[in-house]
Amino acid sequence: MTNATTPRGVTILGATGSIGTAALRVMARHRDRFRVSGLTAHSNAALLGEQVAEWRPDFTGLVNGGQG
Questions:
Q1: CA distances from 54 to 3, 14, 28, 63 (A)
Q2: Which of 1, 28, 57, 65 gets the highest tally of CB atoms within 10 A of its CB?
Q3: What backbone phi and psi angles, to 5 degrees, belong to 22?
Q4: Which helix (H) or strand (E) holds 35?
Q5: What is the span of the domain harbouring residue 27?
Q6: Domain membership flag for residue 37
């Protein structure tokens, strides 16, 4: 069980899409409450790489690197 001061780990599926990037923007405003524990993307390896560099998740996944 986590206490109220421990950030909750969140995994964002589809992190490079519109909903995923919006979720990360919300989380950026509440870094004291959330941490990114995982990120996945379908094919946007470049943006996923930027997100990994910023958020340092424990896990990442890329389905189709660089192929539309």
A1: 25, 16, 10, 20
A2: 57
A3: -65, -40
A4: strand 34-41
A5: 8-62
A6: yes
